[in-house]
Amino acid sequence: MVSFLKELSGNSYPGRGIMIGKSVDGASAVIAYFIMGRSVNSRNRVFVPFEQGIRTQAHDPALLSDPSLIIYAPVRVVNGQTIVTNGDQTDTVYDFLKDGKTFEEALRTREFEPDAPNFTPRISGLVMPADGDFSAKMSILKSDDGRDSSCVRYTFDYDNIQAGEGRFIHTYEGDGDPIPSFKGEPTKVAIDGDIDTFAQAVWTNLNEDNKVSLFVRYIDLKNGGEDTRIINKFN
Q1: For the chain: N or C, fewer Cβ within 10 A?
Q2: How many structural domains are present in the chain?
Q3: pLDDT per position as a tens digit, 188-219
């Protein structure tokens, strides 16, 4: 297990990232989702509240050149379960779960992003509270060694996550051209602090030049209440 903050500060360009874990007091499920950008189009975004989740929106509509891969709802809630993803597969998972199907079934219909030569992975998470605790799933859909014709799909399933621990998955290993995709399974990370302390620490440890927006949510495991923080570089 490594420090979540050190994982962030040691990578200038993890791209988009999802962390799912449990607060250090064991009372809350914790979700963090952030986006970063290198181009004007990618950096020109903010998170705004949307129903029980968030959506991305252009900070300056005049600078929006291509909305196809940057405007979406990263977080939605269905049947008491919270979906968090780095693209419009959020809606795919939402529709499948609403119809009684599974997270895995939904993501079998999707693949990595069509942004050659990077072929950015699609990463997704699901938080499922039950009986005063929660279980979680995480997924990555990625190109098989940079081939646009081959998609590999990995799903990771977690229960009994310990207090102060989480799992962290992100799109890129670091900066590059093309940008290297994330490898391996989600990293086991240590997390700490109340929601304000945690959110500010995450934001501070993201690369100053590339960070764009951050979403953090604590879900009370006893009563289901939600506490959410959104930090945007452009307010």
Answers
A1: C
A2: 1
A3: 999 999 999 999 999 999 999 999 999 999 99
